[in-house]
UniProtKB/TrEMBL annotation:
Pfam families: GFO_IDH_MocA (PF01408), GFO_IDH_MocA_C3 (PF22725)
Name listed for the protein in its UniProt record: Gfo/Idh/MocA family oxidoreductase
Single annotated GO MF: nucleotide binding
Residue ranges of domain Gfo/Idh/MocA-like oxidoreductase N-terminal in the record: 5-120
Coiled coil: none
Domain (GFO/IDH/MocA-like oxidoreductase): residue spans on this chain: 130-233
InterPro entries xrefs: Gfo/Idh/MocA-like_OxRdtase_N, Gfo/Idh/MocA_Oxidoreductases, GFO_IDH_MocA-like_dom, NAD(P)-bd_dom_sf
Amino acid sequence: MTTPLKIALIGAGAMGRQHAGYIARESAATLVASTDPFSSALADETGIEHFTDHREMLDQVRPDAVIIANPNDLHVTTAIDCLERGIPALLEKPVACSREEASQLIAAQHRYDVPILVGHHRRHNPVAERAKAIIDAGRLGRLATVTGMWQTCKPDDYFSMEWRRQPGAGVVLINLVHDLDLLRHFCGEISAVQAMTHNALRGFEVEDSAIVQLEFANGALGSLTGSDGVVSPWGWDQNVNEVPLYAKHLDQSCYFLAGSEGALSVPQLSLWRYGEARGWQHQLVCESHRFTEGSAQQRQLAHFIEVARGQAEPLVSVEDAAWTLAVIDAIQEAARTGQRQIPRSP
Ligand SMILES: NC(=O)c1ccc[n+]([C@@H]2O[C@H](COP(=O)([O-])OP(=O)(O)OC[C@H]3O[C@@H](n4cnc5c(N)ncnc54)[C@H](O)[C@@H]3O)[C@@H](O)[C@H]2O)c1
């Protein structure tokens, strides 16, 4: 039997502790150390070694791989410290805070040739995998329109932390980043965007609502609507059984994709197509597609173990995640200027 992969955690906050839980349920990996300058609680509870400085931890413990779940502004420097030591990393999203930072990490990766998987975990969800397979099999024909929604009501105390009320922490970067990543995964590269945002619901400096129009390189057009202050059952987090925190409305859809031969709702995976005859006077036939439930994060960890062992290429590479960041930059610029924007290569 292969020895379990020795994984160390950098950042033992809310997300880091979740990762520790997934590692505990995975027989092919073992958690050997955690690093967090402000809390040793996880190490105290689990009996693993604790460090306050990740470089010290990397040099002393020499883990086979690390999971980086520290604050966003430390992602790139921490990941580079791992690359320099030849240690593969699962890096939480966002990959970086800006395109410039992302470019630094891409350059370092080319220099050291050590794999990094970026934690856009939704792609590992079995429902996302099945939806992509249906689209890639051409069941929708030529994809023409995509409609996405992420709309919910964050509790007021979510905004008690000041950074969450300030630019950079709005619904676009914090939440729509996941939808944009998944829509890129389903539909291909986004070639241009237009956007409008407002802060009318909460009145904070940061936006609470956004409408984004998307042009895909394959010619499809999309719209994505997001808000963190509305009453709505429509959004991945409410519609997919993934993160326990959110109340679930599993009978509702958050994405609708339509093409020349069919239409698909996600996550229901209802595929609508014509039978014998075509045209709006004819009834559509609905095929219900099934998938086997499974935890996206747990599957992401299993994939990361393969990546760290050199048995698989990262499903979400640094370059790939940097493109989602480039789309976000373009959306913010479009909302600011009112002009259509083309995402710039990271
Ligand atoms: N994939 C997802 O859906 C998802 C969800 C939530 C958060 N995240 C990401 O996970 C990361 C952590 O978010 P969180 O919600 O756990 O935040 P958090 O504030 O709960 O945890 C961050 C932890 O990092 C620690 N930290 C600060 N400086 C550090 C340093 N120099 N070295 C090591 N640790 C340090 C803090 O003490 C804290 O315990 C963020 O990048 C966030 O974007 C991803």
